[in-house]
Amino acid sequence: TIEDFTRIEDLADHVDETVTLKGWLHNQRGSGGIKFLILRDGSGFVQCVVPQDAVDADSWAVADDVRQEAALEITGSVSADERAPGGYELQVDAVERIGESGDYPVTPKEHGIDFLMEHRHLWLRSESQWAVMRIRNRIETAIHEFFQERGFLQTDAPILTGNAVEGTSTLFDLDYFDDESAYLTQSGQLHGEAMAMAYGKVYTFGPTFRAEKSATRRHLTEFWMIEPEMAFYDLEMNAQLAEDFVAHIVQAVLEDCEEELEALDRDTSALEQVETPFPRISYDEAVELLRSDETAEMIDERIEALNEEKAELLEEKEENQTRRGQAKKHVKRKIDAREIEINKRVDEIEEALRNLPDWKESAQTFEWGSDFGGDDETVLTWHFDRPVIVHRFPAEIKAFYMKRDPDDDRLAMGIDVLAPEGYGEIIGGGERATDLDFLKEQIEAHDLPEDVFDWYLDLRKFGSVPHSGFGLGLERTVSWITGRDHVRETIPFPRTIARLHP
Ligand code: 4AD
Ligand code: MG
């Protein structure tokens, strides 16, 4: 092996052996002659027990005066301990400092989101962000497994392009030498279609860009998209692939990321229900459902339940305050920690209580022909216990390349997959138009310049076939599976209208 040290995630293979770990001090406690150092090395977290009388004076000096995020090399013997976080502990023989740390700004206490985003480069070291990035990584590998096992070729689309894909209002443009203008790609789809005509079944996996002018919990200006494109697939085949794909990803995370999900306090019961087939509803049915009495009642019930929960929490808080007076120090600490939790949940509830009446109004007055807003999608998903596939949208709200429904010309053969628990759209896709003249008409109707699409139109001139595909937004998927309420926590360095730094 290359490494002369052991990784925390491999400690299970070294019980009762002496190992050397290299990492950073995550947290510590201790008193008098004993210190408990929580070390993190990127693969996990482990408690290292340092009794003063078991180590030499140099080691004790380091352990006794060490700051959060100092880099350490720790040698000791591994013991299995069910109560220890991660299940193992290190009985330390020696501690050496590799790198000093100063007043580390991101302490284990609560910080506001703006502060955390400003310190994103350091916040990434926290346990919650460690868990999110590990799950993101597992999702990425699950994506490759899924497609590679099914005979897809990974073929990457260009990032600099001359074409708009998803409308012109969210294009990032830049000067491209002489007089040409170029864009950062909004989607690899059009090039994916060319590659599907070359290689049958392909997928692209790359960064995509949209100048999203509104700040929402679901929008980034730079995000990663996975876009399969399949020759000879119709809409239903596309939908089946999408549901198998999403179920595979969820399964992989449930199987391999138990520790990470637990670190995030993610209640996995809803994820465990993600089994195929997913329910399918047409856009028409979705509109009907939004406007139904059932939806109105569901929202009213939610409001009632939230009010009850809030009242209970406030009561608990008051009782805790009365107890706090005479309580011992460690009980006071527990009460204070619980108070932070209660306050956080009450804030969430109050925000929901402010929003829900508007959401109800928006659902009940939803008009056929409009696009679902994020809130409408949230409300829709509450009706289902697993992801739901919405299909056949009004053509006006969809892109130029969509095939029309042969049974109803007002409709485009699109599909969206909405994630449950209120997360909303994670996949958008559909069956592609194959007719050359229809596409030319659509390019004109969407005010797009035909000349930059000449290569795309060639695909309809030389062996045009029915084909379909879709795009999965990686960050929205990570956000749902990890239970984060905002996509900004699901990518190492998020880019939004308000943030280009760090
Ligand atoms: O629905 P969209 O716009 O579809 C397309 O781009 C198609 N060309 C894909 C295809 O058929 N090959 O985007 C697809 C997905 C969305 O469902 C969402 O998950 C994600 O990309 N997405 C975003 N994620 C984060 N921030 C944004 N601003 C996003 N816009 C779309
Ligand atoms: Mg979409």
SSE order and pairing:
Blueprint: E1 18-31, E2 34-40, E3 45-51, H1 57-64, E4 71-80, E5 88-99, H2 113-118, H3 120-123, H4 127-149, E6 153-154, E7 160-161, E8 172-176, E9 180-184, H5 189-199, E10 201-209, E11 222-231, H6 235-256, H7 258-263, H8 269-272, E12 280-282, H9 283-291, H10 293-324, H11 329-364, H12 374-381, E13 388-394, E14 404-405, E15 408-419, E16 424-431, H13 436-445, H14 454-461, E17 467-473, H15 474-482
Parallel strand pairs: 3-5, 6-10, 12-13
Antiparallel strand pairs: 1-2, 1-4, 2-3, 4-5, 7-9, 8-9, 10-11, 11-17, 13-15, 14-15, 15-16, 16-17
Helix pairs in contact: 4-6, 4-15, 10-11
Description:
- The structure is a single chain.
- The chain is an alpha+beta fold.
- The chain has helices at residues 57-64, 113-118, 120-123, 127-149, 189-199, 235-256, 258-263, 269-272, 283-291, 293-324, 329-364, 374-381, 436-445, 454-461, 474-482; strands at residues 18-31, 34-40, 45-51, 71-80, 88-99, 153-154, 160-161, 172-176, 180-184, 201-209, 222-231, 280-282, 388-394, 404-405, 408-419, 424-431, 467-473.
- The chain folds into three domains: 8-99, Nucleic acid-binding proteins (OB fold (Dihydrolipoamide Acetyltransferase, E2P)); 121-279 and 455-489, Bira Bifunctional Protein, Domain 2 (BirA Bifunctional Protein, domain 2), CATH 3.30.930; 295-363.
- The strands form three sheets. Strands 6, 10, 11, 12, 13, 14, 15, 16 and 17 form a nine-stranded mixed beta sheet that branches.
- Helix 4 (127-149) packs across helix 6 and helix 4 (127-149) packs across helix 15.
- 4-amino-1,4-dioxobutan-2-aminium adenosine-5'-monophosphate (4AD) is lined by residues 165-166, 187, 189, 210, 212, 219-220, 223, 225, 227, 425-429, 469-471, 473, 475-476, 487.
- Residues 247-323 form a coiled coil.
- This is Asparagine--tRNA ligase.
